[in-house]
Design a protein that fits this description.
It is built from eleven helices and eleven strands. By secondary structure, the protein is an alpha/beta fold. Strands 3, 4, 5, 6, 7, 8, 9, 10 and 11 form a nine-stranded mixed β-sheet that branches. It has a two-stranded antiparallel ribbon with strand order 1-2. The protein is globular.
Length: 300
């Protein structure tokens, strides 16, 4: 019988990393190997299967059509291999071993300082590796197997996932102190000056949640989309440049401390986002994720 030579997982990891980065040096850094090691590994893979997967020029890394198809297959193989380890971990103690979690920027700085001390105390065998990514990036990482679960805000289309809602996070309107005098207990969407509204730039789901809650289509056209973080937005409001929307968790975490910015709840039917933990359907670590969700819900 002829001997069959199969690609190694390491070779597939190199190939996927090169596809994601489009650059041999960055792919090597992501795989924690030298550039020559990664390049040699991909050449060995091409020799093994007898076809060219990557066209190499001095400036551009371009995958052949077959290379693109093999990358997609490689992603599935790597994810399945990763889940073999998940099966073994799921059979052991709850919330132990390594876990990779992506967290969106409008949650990470406000919720993580509250939840991480409790996780370290109650589950010392859990090694939680965190990635801060926008919702789209986080869901892509989840679907490609680069991360195990995502802490994000719903509603958001994240693919074929399971979701455990944790708690609702109300939306507030933040404005320079004295700009709205007297400031009412709540602010209606129709009272927001669209020309003064500052919002996070594209890629942040909080912007979409806030605009959907206001139900004013003209706000999307007239609002200024330039903030890269909620802390930046608050600084702009503090300097009299406009008004913005903030989630309650940011206010509770003290984002308005030492500023002249006031905030009032948004008076609208859907003036809240739902914080949730999501993971891939049929994951062998579902029990771990649901236990983690219970911990996060209590802490939140």
């Amino acid at each position: 019988m002829a001997q069959t030579y199969l690609p190694t997982l390491k070779q597939l990891q190199y190939l996927v990393a090169l596809h994601d980065s489009g650059h041999f040096g960055r792919a090597a850094e992501a795989c924690f190997v030298t550039q020559s090691t990664l390049s040699a590994g991909i050449r060995e893979l091409e020799t093994l299967i007898g076809v060219v997967l990557v066209e190499r020029t001095r400036r551009v890394v371009r995958f052949t059509p077959l290379g693109e198809r093999i990358v997609e297959k490689a992603r599935r193989v790597l994810r399945e291999a990763d889940e073999l380890g998940d099966l073994a971990r799921a059979a052991g103690r709850p919330l132990s071993g390594e876990m990779r979690m992506s967290v969106i920027p409008t949650i990470a700085p406000f919720l993580l300082p509250r939840i991480l001390p409790r996780l370290r105390r109650d589950y010392p065998d859990l090694k939680l590796f965190l990635r801060e990514e926008t919702s789209g990036q986080a869901c892509e990482s989840l679907n490609h197997g680069r991360t195990d679960c995502v802490l994000l805000a719903l509603p958001y289309a994240c693919g074929d996932v399971e979701a455990a809602p944790l708690f609702d996070d109300a939306l507030f309107v933040a404005f320079p102190r004295g700009e709205i005098a007297p400031a009412p207990p709540q602010i209606r969407p129709e009272d927001i000056d669209a020309t003064r509204l500052l919002m996070l730039e594209d890629g942040h789901c909080l912007k979409d949640h806030a605009l959907a809650a206001c139900n004013r289509p003209e706000l999307r056209a007239e609002a200024t989309m330039l903030g890269t973080s909620l802390h930046t937005m608050v600084q702009m409001v503090d300097n009299g440049l406009g008004v913005t929307m903030l989630p309650q968790m940011a206010i509770d975490a003290g984002i308005l401390d030492h500023t002249d910015v006031e905030a009032r709840p948004l008076d609208a039917a859907n003036a809240a986002r739902t914080i949730a933990l999501v993971w891939r359907k049929a994951s062998p670590r579902e029990k771990d994720f649901r236990l983690l969700a219970d911990v996060l819900a209590v802490t939140g």
